[in-house]
What we know:
Helices cover 47% and strands 5% of the residues of chain A. Chain A is mainly alpha-helical. Chain A has a two-stranded antiparallel ribbon. Helix content of chain B is 25%, strand content 16%. Chain B has helices at 6-20, 60-73, 94-97, 108-112, 126-130, 156-160, 199-202, 209-213, 230-237, and strands spanning 36-38, 49-54, 89-93, 114-118, 136-138, 144-146, 167-168, 192-193, 219-223, 240-241, 253-256. In chain B, the strands form four sheets. A four-stranded mixed sheet of chain B has the order 9-2-11-10. The radius of gyration of chain B is 24 Å and the shape is elongated.
Amino acid sequence: MIVYDKEKIIPGIIIFLLLATLPFWYTFVGGQPSVVPEPQISGPATQCVEPKTYMRNSHTDLLNTWRNEVVRKGNRVYIASDGKEYRISLSNTCMDCHSNKTEFCDACHNYLQIVPDCWNCHIQPEESK
Amino acid sequence: MMSIGRREFLRIAGTCAVLGLPGIPTPPASAQPSTRFVAASGVRQAKQWAMVVDLDKLTEADRIICVETCHRVHNVPQIDNPRHEIRWIWAESFKRVFQEQTNEFIPSNLLKRAVLVFCNHCGNPPCTRVCPTQATWRREDGIVMMDWHRCIGCRYCMVACPYGSRSFNWQDPRPFIGMANQDFSTRTKGVVEKCTFCAERLDQGLRPACVESCPSGALVFGDLQDEHSEVRQLLASRFSIRRRPGLGTQPEVYYLI
Amino acid sequence: MLENALKGSPKYWGWIGVLLIVIVAGFLFYLRQVEFGLGITGMSRDVNWGFYIAQFTFLVGIAASAVMVVLPYYLHNYIVFGKITILGEFLAISSVVTCILFVTVDLGQPQRAINIILYPSPRSMLFWDMVVLIGYFLLNVVISRVTLDAEGKSISPPGWIRPVIYLSIPWAISIHTVTAFIYCGLGGRSFWLSAILAPRFLASAFASGPALLILLCLLVRKVTRFDPGKEPIQKLALIVTYAMTANVFFILLECFTTFYSGIPEHTIHFRYLFLGVAGADALTPWIWVSVVMGVAGLVLLLVPRLRENEPVLTISCLAVFISLWIDKGLSMVITGFVPSPLGEFTEYTPTIPELTISLGIYAIGALLLTGLFKIGVKVKEETNRPPVLVSKARSG
């Protein structure tokens, strides 16, 4: 195979690969290890509606399903996998326990640069006008 | 020796990219717990919700209180600019509401009387027909509902509504909301909103806010398919008219003259 | 072939530069609109659609008008149009892109636009409009690419392109019919509730589109070495004449039905538009300019001597185009909202941000058109021989 401009292409590919894998090797070379977010829970209950691993992975799916069930089907009660009943509400049920949005929700979301737009409409408990 | 042109290279690369996309491994989803969703207990249910407005009983106080209650309970913003105003329920003159049924010899007190208007929750709604995402749809119990998560803000439903019942958030409504009701959402800029017959209150076994708060009891809410309901009795005993009946929208708000 | 768009004279790049500046200005205002909301436009609770949707409606017509060159050439072997079908298709592509952009900037939540595909609503005419517009765009991209490619190599295009071209003919009619259906099926808007709205849309499209194409052909002749020829332009002028006559006739038909029956709900919109009602008359000067320009342009077109005189033809095409832009864009859309269902005369004036965003979108269309025309004209300049039709034997 003939590669034209070998002197430019091969170094170029190497530089690209280095830049593309930067996040993986940067901390070993001398940067500060980034802080792993630790969300704080301040609510009364000790357990969420579903187990922690499921919520961590799929709370977005859960919230989407909740939304469709309430708004489009009119079902406002959620019977969890352990049989407990919960009233479906982001601002009231979820935020009853996770009442400090900054310490809980934002801890991971800010770290991952995610900006969920729930709070444009749903009222955050702290900011009662 | 392989020698391909630029166009051929791009074609191969593009095809590989498109074919390769499904091959990207997705992390295995956590095991889906077995769950159920049910309606809350004590939900008010009906086959066909309707509202009867008794124009004889309706007073000025009603006009102010019903509107204020609805807008407060639902966090409807108070915007002074009439072009951007948001109204779920409001008072309009008889002449304007029933244009095609007005003549100059009608008693003047009737002509000037304020009529409460809101979404008619039509049986054959043009707005739900035109919505390209079904962000508004007609429920089985007759309520024309809104899903503010899905609305793309195209305003086609507003264009289609023959009654002007719908409002659009031309800007962020939050600065214009006073004391927010924590039990209900606000909306965001860029979506259409309107009266939803207080579906969230019906789910808690309550009557719509305007009906509940109306001092004179001029607003009556009930199931048209229930022969013994108050709405049916009222409609059987007195003459009623609806807005623009000739359009075939089958509005479910009846006005007793 | 594509690289032809990147080679040009200083004047070419100057034009591109101007377009880019306008595009950036429009984009900056759009960012402001995304941040503040659609309230920075002149639209209101009573006038729900304004300048953006008016431009969309007008441009769908321009896009559909490509059929006026495609149909005679491919369906009836009308060789005269062979030199300009590609220009018509390029105009269609640019128009469809600007259409989709205008609809997008009109959305309150544009990032949710994908919901139209995720939750298809076959009863909604907006859903079908998206479907047919995207289909028409793809059709024209494929057709123009394949035919221009073949012409560049001086061979016949492959046989399979013929059924694709045939499909684009009813498809062009459909895009504008569906756009008309967005308006003419709404019982609550009596100004639009007329069966003649769809034919009127098509007639004004087939007048304004070819008029624009004539102007573009004359421009191409002036700034490049490619001459579309006098005959195609004259035939296009004839199409504009007939289409404009039909359009004027249809408007008069509407006036008759409205005013002879005298139904107040219908006449009030016409009275608002042409005379103004209760002090509300923002559209009145515009519609009368449109009427005068339209009639003047039509008269100039009807006289064969004047139609064949190209400087005069330029004026009549400009007049017809501007007249129909006002008519289809501003007057048709806005008048439907005035008065409102409750009898309110809320008027509408587009704001500066709204107009700048619109100019930016037009500039994007112009940029696309410039690039495409540059490519097409280059091929034609190089081959400089009569176009080769798809031979019947190969089409099978």
